[in-house]
Amino acid sequence: MGSLLSAISGQFAKVVTLGTLFPVLIISILNLAIVTPIVPNSTLLQTQLKRIALGESTWTAVALTIVVVVFTGFLYNLNIPIIRLYEGYPWKGSWIGEQFVRRKKEQLREATLLRPSLRYLRRYFLKLGRTDHRTSDLGSQYGLLAEILNTSLPSDEGLLLPTRLGNVIRSFEHYSTPAYGMDAIVLWPRLLSKIDSAFASTIDEAKSAFDFMLNCSFLSLLTALGIVAIGLSRTTPLAWEKDVAWIWRAALFALISMASYQFSIGCAKAWGDQVKAAFDLYRLDLLKSLGYQQQPTSYVEEVAIWSKISAQLLFADSKESPLPYKYLPTRVIASPAGIELTIMREFGPTEPNGQIPVTITIKNGDRAQREAFAMKLIETLPDGFKYVPQTARTTTGTSRLSGIAPLELVIDDPLEPNALVVVSYDMKPPPQS
To answer: pTM of the entire structure?
Structure first.
């Protein structure tokens, strides 16, 4: 994600400098100032550093610069493995990882159950006209709970990771699925082509701030472990008088690592907000670029479209019927999104009054055996043809007309699995010239 965005925004050098080079320089300076005195042969090393500072050893300074640049490049290419380490992927299946995930599951369940209760109480107090502190407190608590569910934890227990950072990143990585039915893994590389350079630079800046804090944490942790190794390698380990010098240094870098990690969580949330905004702003542009001329008229219809496109791209060899590039003359929008309905339209012979009967059969052939509800039939009549008022009817249940151009018919009753409903209406051909 990072390198592709950097190419779009034209800020690759800036991203590497802020996110990787600066942490390397900062932690290197801290190492030289704090760790050097306890390193074996520290006197020789300090003398060499003084010569570099005074400009007396140019080649050593050049060699040191090359080492910093090479280490920066190495750290930049380790960006994804480091992030995954902090997210908890490598140790998720360990005993401690499973315990952390179990606690996260409990938090998600409690928050999910508590949210509707808080919503109900807040509405109840507002309905009573209460203006005391309890109403505002409920609003604050509800906002905090929504923030936890929307940014701190993913929506599904199966997506939970052991660490706070991992769950924050998981939350925005899978934002597009519950929001629009878009598979982010499949569609994000394609969405990048639609993001303009100005907006891409804001994502880069947020990601660079995150990389800076996480790299500082990682390098500080390595330094702390290195100090502990130096201390334990002494001939008389755990002798307080001799070991206090390395113990406080290790504790200092461990503290820096922990603090940087905590700051990285906030940076990850800011980065996630930008990624979410990219889906919000550019998804319909992506729909056009993929060749689809459809413009969804409702949330349910959009989720169904993106779910179908995601499945087609993910399973290119699928034998299922692909999504048409243009809207078909007859289509049905129904909940839940993506439910499989088959539609067949037939025209009858012209009647003596010149009207043409139209019959549309809708069958619920969903393989998951889900019930279809909130169905809306959208029918585009041929050019010049007009709907004959008060002729729309259904064989079962009740229906109501909600639009004429195009013809929109809302079917109120749910459609059971493998059941069908027949809709019929009459239309008039254009007058003969």
So the answer is: 0.79
